[in-house]
Amino acid sequence: MIPIIINILWISLCLHGANSAKILGIFPAPSFSHQQTFQPIWKELSLRGHNVTVITTNPLGNNSLINLTEINVGFTYEHLLNSSFIQHLYEPDSVFRKVYDIHRLGLEINEAQIMHEKIQHILNENETKFDLILIQVVQSFTDLTFGYAAKYKCPVVGISSLGVFFHFHDFLGNPTHPVVSPDMMLGFAGKINFFQKLQSLLYNLWYRLFYYWYILPNADRVARKHFGDDMPYLGDIERNMSLLLVNSNPVIHAVRPNVPNIVEICRLHISEKKPLPKDIKDYLDSSTQGVVYFSLGSNVKSTYLSVEVRQEIIKALGELPYNVLWKWETDHLPDRPPNVLTRKWLPQQDILGHPNIKAFVTQGGLQSIEEAITNEVPLVGIPFITDQPSNIKRIVELGMGQMVEQQTLTKEKLKKAILEVAGDPEYKENVSKAKSIMDDQPMKGVDKAVWWIEYVIRHNGAKHLRSQAADMSFFEYFMIDVALFLFACIFAMYYLVAKIVSAAKQCTNSNNKVKRN
Ligand SMILES: *[C@@H]1O[C@H](CO)[C@@H](O)[C@H](O)[C@H]1NC(C)=O
Ligand SMILES: *[C@@H]1O[C@H](CO)[C@@H](O)[C@H](O)[C@H]1NC(C)=O
Ligand SMILES: *[C@@H]1O[C@H](CO)[C@@H](O)[C@H](O)[C@H]1NC(C)=O
Ligand SMILES: *[C@@H]1O[C@H](CO)[C@@H](O)[C@H](O)[C@H]1NC(C)=O
Ligand SMILES: *[C@@H]1O[C@H](CO)[C@@H](O)[C@H](O)[C@H]1NC(C)=O
Ligand SMILES: *[C@@H]1O[C@H](CO)[C@@H](O)[C@H](O)[C@H]1NC(C)=O
Ligand SMILES: *[C@@H]1O[C@H](CO)[C@@H](O)[C@H](O)[C@H]1NC(C)=O
């Protein structure tokens, strides 16, 4: 009996096959909420014995992870803060401008990171080989990093901490119906009206023209400078991606059909509860009337708010019958009401887990929403960028919270929304229902992500999961050749029938003439 068990164990170990691969992870976006989603993946991969090298703006810095090498490119946070993307964050800028800004900023930041001496060292010594490259895909921000895949010629797995732009769906042959799955940049949610449908279709077309004719060729030009002129076209490298892991929340995201090499993951960053710092714990414990937790996340900083909006928020919070814990990024909050406590940084997940928290005022980032649902806290959303407006609209639709728009925010509106969400138990009940759906998964988010990554390592890619649609031209996919043929047939038939009819007419006419004569 025992030898059999040992045998089975041994065989399963061998079949595992993914033992100790060399993995390069590239996570260039200077955004804590994005990095927080990926950290558990690279940690877990290293604990499983893979030799993992990671380029990140937020290293874990845990020396006990001996199989992990982290290259800290956190200096590029400064590029983000200086960028026009951040400066335009609070203006109702056009979506076109935002798409352009994301691309420009991505090129700038990725180039600065590639020039980093430690990365140059790896790129220039020719011994290092990798078995797999993980690339953070975030909109058109990380196109340049696919140059690494040209250098190491190994399978690539893309990971996104939110949804992805159209071109990634195109690369893997995934359908992007403008009405069923409108792009997140449009901020739509639920059933959309006629004008939104029109807008979605036009955006769908515009985005492709802009991406394939401007953004991608531009990124390709820059990539050639760093990875050599003999690399394949950048678009072909991206298209060659083996697998794409997309962060999709089963509660708030609209269901969409996915090809098998697009795998949905969620709740990667949800961690075990840790004890709160003493001062915060005392504050929460003693606030028996309830606490509102206020944080606009890690990208949107409260200090960027216009003075008028900030004054309205402060007045609203001051009039609440609750205490308020506010993540405010400077030491001093002007006109701070007595019921408001600020801290530059707060352990959000653990705070949301405290029983006295009544409501969470958030910008509506996916990670914050996941934390709120996990801890059954109803929400008040003040959305800003990318997926935040559509996330919050969905939360409102599901009866889990209220939305207050930043452009029209007043003291009354914010106060009313918070009082309603904190006071009506139905909101919390609806969040609890959502939690029970979100919890009901066959495995934890990080285990699923790691399983799929090792799957690609075991099979040296995942060609067998690739949809034929991914390699079809526009003409083939939309069957334009077939449609043209059918049109031609119909036209020919029409022509033939018309000819016969007119011939028959002529015939009867001439018969009649003959008769009359
Ligand atoms: C490091 O990798 C080895 C296998 O290469 C594995 O046995 C070990 O558990 C890993 N250690 C840590 C701390 O990740
Ligand atoms: C470092 O990682 C180890 C292994 O998971 C963990 O036990 C330890 O708590 C981590 N240390 C810190 C400071 O996070
Ligand atoms: C991982 O690979 C690097 C070379 O890329 C090597 O220097 C390092 O020793 C390896 N780490 C382990 C734990 O094998
Ligand atoms: C950001 O702006 C500051 C102040 O204008 C400037 O000193 C700094 O060099 C800029 N940094 C980058 C990376 O552009
Ligand atoms: C690595 O290869 C490149 C191109 O083949 C070459 O230019 C470079 O000198 C090599 N570097 C080393 C350290 O051998
Ligand atoms: C496509 O990916 C495979 C590994 O999955 C790699 O060997 C090949 O070089 C890649 N081709 C291009 C054009 O990137
Ligand atoms: C909670 O959900 C139920 C069922 O979906 C809905 O009828 C109700 O209106 C929601 N509650 C709120 C406060 O929106």
TrEMBL record:
Its EC number is 2.4.1.17. It is a single-pass membrane protein. InterPro entries: UDP-glycosyltransferase, UDP_glucos_trans, UDP_glycos_trans_CS. Pfam families: UDPGT. GO terms for cellular component: membrane. Belongs to the UDP-glycosyltransferase family. This is UDP-glucuronosyltransferase. It comes from Phyllotreta striolata (Striped flea beetle).
